[in-house]
Amino acid sequence: MLPRIGKIDREVFERIIFPNLGKTDPRVIIKPMHGVDAGVIEIDENKVMVVACDPTFGMPVIMPFFGWAIVHICASDVAVLGVKPEYMTISLLLPPQSDMKILEEIWQQISSECNKLGISIIGGHTGVYPGIAYPLNGGCTVFGIGKKEELTPASNAKIGDKIVVTKGPAIEAAAILAYQAEEKLKEVIGQKIIDKAKKLIWEMTVVKDALIARKYANAMHDATEGGLLNGIYEIAEASKVGVIVYEEKIPILEEVKTICEYFKIDPLISISEGTLVITVQKEKVASLIKDLKENGILAWEVGEVIEKERIFIRKDGKEEKLLPVKVDPFWDAYFSTL
Known about the structure:
By secondary structure, the protein is an alpha+beta fold. It has helices spanning 10-17, 66-79, 100-117, 171-180, 182-189, 191-199, 207-213, 227-239, 254-263, 285-294, 330-336, and strands spanning 28-30, 39-42, 47-56, 87-94, 120-128, 136-147, 162-166, 217-222, 242-246, 276-280, 299-306, 310-313, 319-321. The longest helix is centred in the first third of the chain and has 18 residues, at 100-117.
């Protein structure tokens, strides 16, 4: 059965998508798989092209940031492979009777963020279509060209690597819920916490994180649906390794913790675009964390890559299996606010 909302799960992907990928081409050196954010095409023996594609759901709360979100969400998936995003195409779809000002605002944001990140828009499609309620990025594709030996896919984690995360879990979930349920939350948690959570909307990107971390990392992956623990699991699965993760080492921002508690959702498995998971050799951890901090990005070591088992150790010392997240709890929380 398909999920009610969100990405299809691993079982559906493995049964329907993965066996049916069109023509086999040896130049495709990283093909679609769970936990890997982009495909990679070999250009020559040294050079590769990284390609990532993403939709962006035009939920009402994100409309003031919609153009920004389109660019950063798509560009992040190229950056996590250790390659700078350079080119973009986009299919931007609008519902009937849309005001021209909406298109102007979205497009100006897209162009502005592309300028800041050094991305050229090279094509796409823009139109008005029935059947959609809000503006929709029907598919943004970002390309980058880099060196083969510098790739950092989620499939490249090595036994003995330490696991480092940036920003903490559930920043996307907390930011969106703070905007969406502001009036309700104000009565319970106060405006100060809400305002802190709303600022996290601008943290929903790992482009900067990844372009700093790429010179240290073996593997990188951003924690989108299923949150931080699912992101770590996907690295382990893609790399065919084990992991051990410690709950006590995972920082949760006060505003994130408060909002997740209100909605009764687990921040460790809630959507968190903007949280980067990095695996890195032990001797490089201190330099990586220092470099990120000097660029305004907090990061913490939370675990280690091991040979086989995938283990999550709770604060009370209880040991659990680290499993893939089937349903992200954010979605029920979000739709309960509409």
